[in-house]
Amino acid sequence: MRIVKATLTPLRLELLQPLKTARGTYSAREGFLVRLEDEEGRVGLGEAMPLPEFGTESLPVCGEVLAAWLSSLEGQFLGDTVRAVEDTLSPFPPTVARGEGVRVRARHPAPPGPVPAAEHALELALLDLLARRQGVPLCWLLAEEARPEVLVNALLSGETAEALVDEARVAVAEGYGTLKLKVGGRALEEDEQRVKAVREAVGPDVKLRLDANGGWTELEAKRALDKLGWYQLELVEQPTPPDDLAALWRVQRRAPCMVAADESLGSPETLRALLGSDPLLGGGPAVGAVVLKPMVLGGLLPGLVVAMRAARLGMQAYVTSSLDGVVARAGAAHLAAALPSGALASGLAVGKLFKSEPAEHDYRPLHGRIRLPETPGLGLDAGAVV
Ligand SMILES: O=C(O)CCC(=O)C1=CC=C[C@@H](O)[C@@H]1C(=O)O
Ligand SMILES: [Mg+2]
């Protein structure tokens, strides 16, 4: 394929109401849309929505790096293969690369640190364009046996128990079978009140997952899960700080539910340790599941590699958005469809948080699921996503 045009457009998503987490409060998200056009006028879309608190690069670095890479890509020929996409994203110099891609990175000074959001945007746009040229949904490039639909959890963003109960009732009525609540950053009694109220409102069959965003110490996590474990939790995301894998493993050993490592995957060193079988961690899996954020991991392909390695160690995997736009969420849905297992719901129902969410698109959850469009690539219309 020949990239005849490569454009970068700033993207700002205002939230309808601030989302409070143990790691900070979000009122808007800022990033970039990447458009790649081939010689026949097809357009591949990608999105960068940096999340520095999860280990990605900053917004300015992301914009700078993407502008440089796209300037080198414009006018170039790439092989019509996934390998060409991997080579184009490869940080290694041409001498060790396999050569079907375009060495965009080697033509510019190396960025100050990891740039996963920029990698994610370029990779997604290339995969979207490649799948459109091959006439297949993007997930078929990732796995031939990709599932046609993915389970999605609802994210409850209310502050009070009453607000959460109202949201939970609406979500269950809409068909969601898994609800996610933020915990941590407040008194444990308050969190217990919120979780108890939601559990009593939805009954025993709806799955409840919590997300502490690394906000508890190891002792607080143990005390919290001793209390909250009475409300039949499916899992708890990142109960303790991201860099201490041994603490995460000790909490998992006593927890009444699966622990899912999330922020821990944002540090290459911690991710490597998580995917190794460290004898200090008993030689087995440190946690029950890993959260795949393609924006944090540098794309769908790295996400798939992490899922495969985690599965070999006995860890489950699911995908979540990085509070990003429709394009990134569409890519995440295709990754979710390609994972070895679809048992755990994906966190892709965040569109309702944004003021400018497009009214109609194929990645709006329906009855707690996203049915992937059968159209080539992501199947998104470039004009409809901003
Ligand atoms: O998982 C979901 O349902 C939505 C995504 C989500 O909760 C998050 C996205 C990005 C940052 C965090 O606030 C949070 C998370 O930690 O998983
Ligand atoms: Mg999380």
From TrEMBL:
It is an enzyme of class 4 (lyase). InterPro entries: Enolase-like_C_sf, Enolase-like_N, Enolase_C-like, Mandel_Rmase/mucon_lact_enz_CS, Mandelate_racemase_C, Mandelate_racemase_N_dom, OSB_synthase_MenC1. The active site is at K182 (proton donor), K293 (proton acceptor). SUPFAM superfamilies: Enolase C-terminal domain-like, Enolase N-terminal domain-like. Gene3D superfamilies: Enolase-like C-terminal domain, Enolase-like, N-terminal domain. Pathway: Quinol/quinone metabolism; menaquinone biosynthesis; Quinol/quinone metabolism; 1,4-dihydroxy-2-naphthoate biosynthesis; 1,4-dihydroxy-2-naphthoate from chorismate: step 4/7. Pfam families: MR_MLE_C, MR_MLE_N. Keywords: Isomerase, Lyase, Magnesium, Menaquinone biosynthesis, Metal-binding. GO terms for biological process: amino acid catabolic process; menaquinone biosynthetic process; peptide metabolic process. It comes from the Bacteria. Mg(2+) binds at D211, E237, D262. PROSITE patterns: MR_MLE_2. Belongs to the mandelate racemase/muconate lactonizing enzyme family. MenC type 1 subfamily. Converts 2-succinyl-6-hydroxy-2,4-cyclohexadiene-1-carboxylate (SHCHC) to 2-succinylbenzoate (OSB). This is o-succinylbenzoate synthase. It comes from Myxococcus fulvus. The lineage of its organism: Bacteria, Pseudomonadati, Myxococcota, Myxococcia, Myxococcales.
